[in-house]
MerR family DNA-binding transcriptional regulator (Roseospira marina), 262 residues
Amino acid sequence: MDTLYSITDLARDLDITPRTIRHYEDQGLLAPQRVGTTRVYSHRDRARLILILRGKRLGFSLKDIKEYLDLYVVDTSQVEQVRVLVTKVRDRIGQLEEQLDTVQTTLKELRDIERMSVSMLEQKGVDVPMA
Amino acid sequence: MDTLYSITDLARDLDITPRTIRHYEDQGLLAPQRVGTTRVYSHRDRARLILILRGKRLGFSLKDIKEYLDLYVVDTSQVEQVRVLVTKVRDRIGQLEEQLDTVQTTLKELRDIERMSVSMLEQKGVDVPMA
DNA sequence: CTGGACGGTGACGTTAGCGGAAGCTAGCTT
DNA sequence: AAGCTAGCTTCCGCTAACGTCACCGTCCAG
């Protein structure tokens, strides 16, 4: 259950390079244990890394992602911290809702283009590849 | 109806700098008319620019966006071109569907965090700011 | 005991995406 | 004529996010 990973394990696993992982650490996004000088990654580290990559896919900068990660690890015993957390989380939610909207709009447009193109081809008797 | 824009008009309007607009032109994403050396933008140019900015918000590179723009301007009289178009459009659709998914997942997680935090605060008798 | 395979630390290189200043021109406007 | 304002080009600068050495230690397998 407490599986550990080496840096190359993780890299291969998530399809990135060790260099990238070290870079994230340099930027303060990760802080794996060390055995001597060698980095050793836990489940939580792995999960964090996955969140990082997700953030990147959504187009966020590493700096943004760093703040984002903090949302997942907060001392919930401190009322004030939770307060702050809530507003930060709501900010992110706002951003993502906007992005969701943008994506959906774009999808609609592209599907329109697809439909129009396909019907254009059918009309010309061209056999249309399936969806 | 055939309104024209200067580069600063457009920049102010879309909240970017003229420099950025010129940069997009350098990268082949725009090709406005010229009056002498001065750039003059049409509605279509403006629309393109908006698409560019949308692509950026979604985290695409300028190179990606360039290809993406071509999807909106194709010679529909050439069957082969339309064929190619359809497959490209479908590719993009696939990408965006994935992104849609990612965004939704992330949103769910954040909403969970929000709910949990809020109920935690309420339980402690703290007055919780509204959504 | 030696050659890989793996891990580590600098430190410099690279690409993308603009920012910003220099130096020039054209068209008002006073 | 002189001074503004806008726009143009050119080029150097800068940040982000890694890639790519170079060089060093370590732990097996042969």
User: Anything to note?
Assistant: Residues 75-131 of chain A form one domain. Chain A has two domains: 1-58, 75-131. Chain A touches chain B through 41 residues (CB under 8 Å).
